[in-house]
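Entry under discussion copied across for reference:
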Amino acid sequence: MTTPNRSISLTLEVISPMFLAGADPRGKPELRPPSLRGMLRYWLRALVGAAGLDVAQQHENRLFGVAGDKNAAAGAIALHIQQAAVNPKTYTDLTRGRDGAGYLWFAARQTKTEAEREAIPPGTRFTLQLSAPRSPDPQRDLRQTLVVLKVAALLGGIGNRSRRFAGAFQAVSSPDDLPQPLDPRIRSRSPEMLAAEIAQIIRVTRVAEHDLSLASPPKFDIIHPAWCEIGVSPATYRDVLDLIDHFGTVLMEFRREQPDAAAFARSVFQEQPIQAVKRPAFGLPIPFYYRDSNTNATLQASLGIDRRASPIWMQVVRLANGEHAAVFTWFRSQFLPPDAELVLKQGRRTIAEGAVPDQEAREEIIRDFLGQLNLIPVNFAQPTEAQ
């Protein structure tokens, strides 16, 4: 790969609605470099984190800079975005007649005090320029950034609800001289090919050569054979919103079948301890609303931990034939600190407490959910086959 001007220009396209905004979360959506840089930091850490947090932070700081007031420093890679005019779509526009999508993106709905969120719609394109003006080795730094960008496009997304099919993006044009697998465009034409393409790009990072002896869950999400599982749904959909609505409905029905609701009701109305619940395995907080009594409650963690993101990334990839496939990435990292508990609150008042589901209970419910999807496994730990 040659980059005589120390830069690469890519055209990216929004694949699923991207709930993003500037200073006002409910304002007009816009894609800004900080959002993209934050996403790249997360996936870089996931890719190299098996070598340890110190190594991951060294890579992050070198490529994307050091944040903070005192020790702030620019990274080797600069990001510049040029975006055409956006015709945003509201939460209502996107979810009308699609209960599954509405369930996944409920946080974007209108509330008593806030307007509904708007999203950058699928099909919107923008130009991303990656440059390395300060790098002593621009070839290396640009290559590493391209790898992270492609992994982020295959597994993740940008913005609110990006773990629930929102904010997917892909490269639709890139320099012709980029060799595979550095070319960030998706080449697969079937779910089976997509599983192989994901495995290949992860292997390029040589993650499998890092510490494979991790005997306990890591403290942050890492793509490691023992602590991460990736699968691709065998079904494809022409319309991306049809895919999202289908899997949103599957998740909604699965969670409604869990017996946790009765346990939470006892805690809310009788102020009994929270006992034997599994639903937190999908993330915290969990808001509850009991229509009959007009009662609200929120389940969250103690120790001032307001949020624990879902360990499952559910995302969509557009194949080279125009069909869309769903990709599920399960990070089996530490769920909460060992001394954390569950607390059920009404406003600021704690009305019930209980133990966090243990690892076995959390994994049981997630395996039950993923098991019904019949996913094609991504075997990224295997040696790379000769191309």
Remarks:
- The mean pLDDT is 88.
- The first helix runs from residue 33 to 48.
- The chain is about 30% helix and 20% strand.
- Residues 101 and 241 are 8 Å apart (CA to CA).
